[in-house]
UniProtKB/TrEMBL annotation:
Pfam families in the record: FAD_binding_3 (PF01494)
Keywords attached to this entry: FAD, Flavoprotein, Monooxygenase, Oxidoreductase
Database matches in SUPFAM superfamilies: FAD/NAD(P)-binding domain
Listed name of the protein: FAD-binding domain-containing protein
Gene3D superfamilies: FAD/NAD(P)-binding domain
InterPro entries: FAD-bd (IPR002938), FAD-dep_Monooxygenase_BioMet (IPR050493), FAD/NAD-bd_sf (IPR036188)
Keyword Flavoprotein assigned: yes
Protein backbone atom coordinates (compact mmCIF):
# COMPACT_ATOMS: atom_id res chain seq x y z
CA UNK A 1 0.00 0.00 0.00
CA UNK A 2 1.46 3.32 -1.05
CA UNK A 3 1.51 6.24 1.36
CA UNK A 4 2.30 8.74 -1.39
CA UNK A 5 -0.13 11.55 -1.97
CA UNK A 6 -2.31 10.79 -5.06
CA UNK A 7 -1.33 14.14 -6.58
CA UNK A 8 2.45 13.86 -6.90
CA UNK A 9 2.76 17.58 -7.71
CA UNK A 10 1.33 18.41 -4.27
CA UNK A 11 3.97 16.34 -2.51
CA UNK A 12 6.82 17.73 -4.60
CA UNK A 13 5.67 21.32 -4.04
CA UNK A 14 6.06 20.90 -0.28
CA UNK A 15 9.54 19.42 -0.28
CA UNK A 16 12.90 21.15 -0.40
CA UNK A 17 13.96 18.79 -3.18
CA UNK A 18 11.17 19.61 -5.66
CA UNK A 19 12.34 19.64 -9.26
CA UNK A 20 12.15 23.01 -10.88
CA UNK A 21 11.99 24.24 -14.44
CA UNK A 22 15.14 25.58 -16.06
CA UNK A 23 13.11 27.87 -18.32
CA UNK A 24 11.20 29.29 -15.32
CA UNK A 25 14.50 29.84 -13.51
CA UNK A 26 15.96 31.66 -16.50
CA UNK A 27 12.81 33.80 -16.78
CA UNK A 28 13.00 34.66 -13.08
CA UNK A 29 16.61 35.83 -13.35
CA UNK A 30 16.39 37.35 -16.84
CA UNK A 31 17.63 40.75 -15.68
CA UNK A 32 20.65 39.51 -13.69
CA UNK A 33 24.18 40.23 -14.88
CA UNK A 34 25.58 38.25 -17.87
CA UNK A 35 27.88 36.17 -15.65
CA UNK A 36 24.93 34.90 -13.60
CA UNK A 37 22.98 34.27 -16.81
CA UNK A 38 25.86 32.19 -18.17
CA UNK A 39 26.11 30.11 -14.99
CA UNK A 40 22.37 29.48 -14.90
CA UNK A 41 22.36 28.37 -18.55
CA UNK A 42 25.04 25.79 -17.72
CA UNK A 43 22.74 24.08 -15.22
CA UNK A 44 21.33 20.83 -16.66
CA UNK A 45 17.53 20.75 -16.98
CA UNK A 46 17.03 17.99 -14.40
CA UNK A 47 19.28 19.64 -11.79
CA UNK A 48 17.12 22.67 -11.05
CA UNK A 49 15.57 22.49 -7.60
CA UNK A 50 12.97 24.75 -6.02
CA UNK A 51 13.61 25.62 -2.39
CA UNK A 52 10.73 27.44 -0.77
CA UNK A 53 11.54 29.86 2.00
CA UNK A 54 8.77 30.21 4.54
CA UNK A 55 8.11 32.14 7.72
CA UNK A 56 6.68 30.03 10.53
CA UNK A 57 4.87 31.20 13.64
CA UNK A 58 6.98 30.54 16.76
CA UNK A 59 6.19 27.27 18.53
CA UNK A 60 4.58 27.72 21.94
CA UNK A 61 7.03 25.27 23.52
CA UNK A 62 10.10 23.25 22.59
CA UNK A 63 10.02 20.69 25.40
CA UNK A 64 7.79 17.65 25.83
CA UNK A 65 8.71 15.49 28.79
CA UNK A 66 12.40 14.70 28.55
CA UNK A 67 12.61 15.61 24.86
CA UNK A 68 13.62 19.01 23.53
CA UNK A 69 13.76 20.38 20.01
CA UNK A 70 16.80 22.27 18.72
CA UNK A 71 17.72 24.31 15.65
CA UNK A 72 15.38 24.40 12.68
CA UNK A 73 13.12 21.84 14.36
CA UNK A 74 11.92 24.56 16.75
CA UNK A 75 12.98 27.82 15.13
CA UNK A 76 13.33 27.52 11.34
CA UNK A 77 15.05 30.69 10.21
CA UNK A 78 15.16 32.47 6.87
CA UNK A 79 18.70 33.15 5.59
CA UNK A 80 18.45 36.95 5.71
CA UNK A 81 20.47 37.30 8.93
CA UNK A 82 22.75 34.26 8.58
CA UNK A 83 21.62 32.93 11.97
CA UNK A 84 20.02 29.53 11.36
CA UNK A 85 23.11 27.46 12.15
CA UNK A 86 24.39 29.95 14.72
CA UNK A 87 21.17 29.72 16.72
CA UNK A 88 21.34 25.91 16.59
CA UNK A 89 24.89 26.05 17.94
CA UNK A 90 23.70 28.32 20.75
CA UNK A 91 20.95 25.78 21.50
CA UNK A 92 23.58 23.05 21.79
CA UNK A 93 25.83 25.17 24.02
CA UNK A 94 22.98 25.97 26.40
CA UNK A 95 21.87 22.34 26.47
CA UNK A 96 25.42 21.38 27.38
CA UNK A 97 25.39 23.77 30.32
CA UNK A 98 21.94 22.92 31.67
CA UNK A 99 22.25 19.16 31.28
CA UNK A 100 25.68 19.33 32.86
CA UNK A 101 24.10 20.76 36.00
CA UNK A 102 21.54 18.04 36.71
CA UNK A 103 22.17 15.73 39.65
CA UNK A 104 19.66 13.01 38.73
CA UNK A 105 17.52 11.92 35.80
CA UNK A 106 14.51 13.35 37.65
CA UNK A 107 15.87 16.84 36.92
CA UNK A 108 16.10 16.40 33.13
CA UNK A 109 12.66 17.84 32.39
CA UNK A 110 13.22 20.94 34.53
CA UNK A 111 16.67 21.47 33.01
CA UNK A 112 15.14 21.30 29.53
CA UNK A 113 12.56 23.89 30.56
CA UNK A 114 15.46 26.12 31.66
CA UNK A 115 16.99 25.62 28.20
CA UNK A 116 13.70 26.68 26.63
CA UNK A 117 13.39 29.71 28.92
CA UNK A 118 16.91 30.82 28.03
CA UNK A 119 16.82 30.16 24.31
CA UNK A 120 13.28 30.70 23.07
CA UNK A 121 13.06 34.50 23.40
CA UNK A 122 16.41 35.01 21.68
CA UNK A 123 15.77 32.50 18.90
CA UNK A 124 12.26 33.88 18.30
CA UNK A 125 13.79 37.37 18.02
CA UNK A 126 16.43 36.14 15.53
CA UNK A 127 13.76 34.41 13.41
CA UNK A 128 11.54 37.51 13.36
CA UNK A 129 14.47 39.81 12.61
CA UNK A 130 15.64 37.59 9.73
CA UNK A 131 12.13 37.50 8.25
CA UNK A 132 11.72 41.28 8.54
CA UNK A 133 15.17 41.81 7.04
CA UNK A 134 14.30 39.64 4.04
CA UNK A 135 11.08 41.52 3.51
CA UNK A 136 12.83 44.89 3.78
CA UNK A 137 15.65 43.95 1.44
CA UNK A 138 13.36 42.54 -1.27
CA UNK A 139 10.92 45.38 -1.78
CA UNK A 140 9.46 46.07 -5.18
CA UNK A 141 9.61 49.49 -6.76
CA UNK A 142 7.66 52.15 -4.93
CA UNK A 143 7.53 54.38 -1.88
CA UNK A 144 8.67 51.70 0.58
CA UNK A 145 11.72 50.92 -1.54
CA UNK A 146 12.55 54.61 -1.90
CA UNK A 147 12.28 55.14 1.87
CA UNK A 148 14.51 52.12 2.49
CA UNK A 149 17.10 53.36 -0.02
CA UNK A 150 17.09 56.80 1.63
CA UNK A 151 17.69 55.10 4.99
CA UNK A 152 20.66 53.23 3.45
CA UNK A 153 22.15 56.55 2.31
CA UNK A 154 21.57 58.18 5.70
CA UNK A 155 23.17 55.24 7.53
CA UNK A 156 26.18 55.37 5.21
CA UNK A 157 26.69 59.09 5.84
CA UNK A 158 25.90 59.41 9.54
CA UNK A 159 25.88 55.88 10.92
CA UNK A 160 22.99 54.73 13.02
CA UNK A 161 20.34 52.16 12.25
CA UNK A 162 20.83 50.31 8.97
CA UNK A 163 17.91 48.90 6.95
CA UNK A 164 20.01 45.76 6.39
CA UNK A 165 19.84 44.24 9.86
CA UNK A 166 22.72 41.87 9.03
CA UNK A 167 25.07 44.88 9.08
CA UNK A 168 23.23 47.04 11.61
CA UNK A 169 25.52 47.72 14.59
CA UNK A 170 22.83 47.23 17.24
CA UNK A 171 21.72 43.91 15.75
CA UNK A 172 25.33 42.80 15.37
CA UNK A 173 26.02 43.56 19.05
CA UNK A 174 22.91 41.63 20.05
CA UNK A 175 23.99 38.65 17.96
CA UNK A 176 27.75 38.56 18.37
CA UNK A 177 28.40 39.98 21.84
CA UNK A 178 26.06 37.50 23.52
CA UNK A 179 27.58 34.63 25.49
CA UNK A 180 24.77 32.10 25.69
CA UNK A 181 26.78 29.60 27.74
CA UNK A 182 27.66 32.26 30.32
CA UNK A 183 24.03 33.37 30.46
CA UNK A 184 23.03 29.75 31.11
CA UNK A 185 25.64 29.51 33.89
CA UNK A 186 24.48 32.79 35.43
CA UNK A 187 20.73 32.21 35.27
CA UNK A 188 20.38 28.44 35.67
CA UNK A 189 19.82 28.25 39.43
CA UNK A 190 17.23 31.04 39.50
CA UNK A 191 15.31 29.65 36.52
CA UNK A 192 15.50 26.06 37.79
CA UNK A 193 14.02 27.10 41.14
CA UNK A 194 11.14 28.95 39.43
CA UNK A 195 10.07 26.01 37.27
Amino acid sequence: MSTAHPDRRFVEADTWTASGSKSEMLDMFHDFCPRVQKLLKLCPEGDVLEWKLRVHEPLSHWVDGNTALVGDACHPTLPHLAQGAAQAVEDAAVLGVVLGKIKSKDEVHKALLVYQALRKPRADWAVATAAANGKGLHLGSGAAQEARDAAFKAAKKAGGENPDKAIDQIVQRTLYAHDCAQEAEDRYDALFSQI
